[in-house]
Specification:
With about 130 residues, the chain is mainly β. The chain has no helices and 11 strands.
């Protein structure tokens, strides 16, 4: 069992930066794939970024590529999402997720691939 707790959300102006953190506790393994998703009001939950230990791969949605960076600190059981050059369309609740199968059973873009989810942290970007 894994518990995920996100933090770091807030209100920023367009062009600003935030760093989200997700701390994992319980029985965790470095082989887990870790991802970030977001969900805006009245919209589907969408993929943002994923870190896969297999091959040391990272994946990004086209909408955030070049602006967001996902990273993982295995010693701290923490995954980060550094968000730069934020835009109003980035406004959403951001969720951390973990896949214990390391993307072995599904696409990194599909929320159903992930077994564990955090509670979400709100990111609001003003114009």
């Amino acid at each position: 069992q894994v518990q995920l707790v996100e933090s770091g959300g807030g209100l920023v102006q367009a062009g600003g930066s935030l760093r989200l953190s997700c701390v994992a506790s319980g029985r965790t393994f470095n082989s887990y794939a870790m991802g970030w998703f977001r969900q805006a009001p009245e919209k589907e939950r969408e993929f943002v970024a994923t870190f896969s230990w297999r091959g040391g791969s990272t994946y990004y949605a086209d909408s955030v590529k070049g602006r967001f960076t996902i990273s993982k600190d295995n010693a701290k059981n923490t995954v980060y999402l550094q968000m730069n050059s934020l835009k109003p369309e980035d406004t959403a609740v951001y969720y951390c997720a973990a896949d214990r199968f390391g993307l072995g059973r599904g696409s990194y873009r599909n929320p159903s691939t992930y077994d564990y989810w955090g509670q979400g942290t709100q990111v609001t970007v003003s114009s």
